[in-house]
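Q: I'm writing up a methods section and want to include an example of the input and output format. Could you take the sequence below and give the corresponding predicted structure tokens, formatted cleanly so I can copy it straight into the document?
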Amino acid sequence: MPLQEAFFEALKKEDAQISLFLVSGIRLVGKIENYDTFTVMLTGPNGVSQLISKSAISTIQPDKPLAFKPQA
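A: Here is the clean output for your methods example:
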């Protein structure tokens, strides 16, 4: 499994709260509901979902450590 897919799967499985930073500097907070090759569905604390292009994402930071071990 590719690293990116494994990371998104761990975030989704653990229902982790994340800070997602866009290349524009905007910070979004929420949980990953789903993802595909080009997009990420983020649901914010207010229950509103946003579809975000992966090319617009700079950084994803979980609010707590994940039980995530990437495979070499």
